[in-house]
Amino acid sequence: MMEDLKGRVCLVTGASRNIGRAIAVSFAEQGADVVVHVARDLEAGAETVAAVQAAGTRAKLVSGNLADPEVVKDMMENAAGAFGQLDVVVNNAAIRPEAAFGDITYQGWRDVMGTNLDSVFLVSQAALGPLRASDQAAIVNIGGMTAHKGAAHRAHVVAAKAGVVGLTKAMAHDLAVDGITVNCVVPGLIDTQRLTAAGNADPKHRGTATNLLGRRGLPQDVAAAVLYLVGPSGRYVTGETMHVNGGAYLS
Q1: Is 82 in contact with 35 (CB distance < 8 Å)?
Q2: In this predicted structure, what is the pLDDT of residue 199?
Q3: Contact 179, 137 (CB under 8 A)
């Protein structure tokens, strides 16, 4: 087994299941210790921690609302303090409710912006201290395909994820001097389990979306792209947006 991340510590937000969990486990399989963040579902978070530990490395579970600066500050202190360093941040936490444009309340808009966009700013900024101390620091922001294609009933989600792409490019400019790479991975048509209670039921556009490969991808496909960007082979890549969707834009 390759251990390209041995000796590294990685934080993955929104790692209770699906893509977040796959990324956390893939980091462990490459030798990294992992800080697993969940918003509220501590049971699912514990399952991710167990999966990381089963892969042979250490894990710490942290939780909280990433749209709250004080929560993020406390979480980052716990994350960096758990293993004495932090080398990689993956901003994966997101919610994806659906509502017609005219029915989106301002609070609903702010909830999506807080989780999907503000959290990327807050977590990344709070992580700068330990990341600047690392010689292979990397930030990967997880985007969304609808930010590039648009979608009905998801104006707030599309706007937030489009903002993540722009923020990625701006951060890449500002953090290059510190040796921190910043990239965005955009999943599309990934076979994931959605939670209705969290506003994450299967989106309406899923029923009609197609790609060249004629199948849905797996969370591990997204994790593989993230691994490349944070590993030694991706150190010359920054400010980029990598699409993982089986050729959806070409179908």
Answers
A1: yes
A2: 47
A3: yes
230 domain-assigned = yes
d(CA 52, CA 30): 11
Q: What is the span of the domain harbouring residue 49? A: 9-250
Using alpha carbons, select from 47, 54, 56, 57 the residue that is nearest to residue 15: 47
Q: What pLDDT shows up at residue 196?
A: 53
Give the CATH number for residue 63.
3.40.50.720
Helical spans, DSSP H, in the chain: 18-29, 42-54, 69-83, 106-113, 119-126, 128-132, 146-149, 155-175, 219-230
Q: Is the pLDDT of residue 17 over 80?
A: yes
- Distance (Å, rounded) from C-alpha 146 to C-alpha 138? 25
Residues 191/22, Cβ–Cβ less than 8 Å: no
Q: What is the pTM for the complete model shown? A: 0.94
What would the pLDDT profile of 72-104 be if each residue is shown by its tens digit? 999 999 888 899 999 999 999 999 999 999 999
pLDDT at 185 over 70: yes
Which own/partner contact pairs does 170-178 have at CB distance under 8 Å and 24+ positions apart? Answer: 171/124, 171/139, 172/238, 172/239, 173/239, 175/128, 175/139, 176/238, 178/128, 178/131, 178/132, 178/137
Joined together, the tokens standing for residue 122 give 């807050």
Token pair in block for residue 107: 């609070």
